[in-house]
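Encode chain A's predicted structure.
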Amino acid sequence: MLRRLPALVASLALLAVPSPSLGDSMLVTGNHTAGASASLDFRIVIPPVMRVMENSHPLQLTAGADGALSAEQRLVVLSNMKRGFCVTLRLAAPGVDRWQLHAPGASGVSLSPVDDGYRVCSTRPGRYTLVLQHQFGVNTPGTQALHWPVQTDISAI
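Encoded structure for chain A:
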């Protein structure tokens, strides 16, 4: 029996050492909820954006042969606002009258006159490139040049 004692002690010692496969297993009894169960709730918030990417127009208008002043304005607006945006164009220079504005080929926007200018609106998010054709009359005869007379304001709907 004494000769088998070292072998028995060695066998018991091997049983006491944990096996690598036992680290992945777990015995759960009853209604115990210990473990790695969890739920994740992701929420992605996209901030509202309304940005004028480009507003190019001539700095100065020169009269044509008929005495009228005309110019083209390129306006690029990017918006992710759900209800859209409006751009209000107003005369900001005295001495200008008979203003007409056209937006040929503008899709997804509406152009309407307001008391002191025009309003261009879109009711959907997106990127809009507007080419606006302005024609101005001047109430002072002999005016050959004029600084850009239009103020552009943008607002969310």
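The first helix runs from residue 5 to 16.
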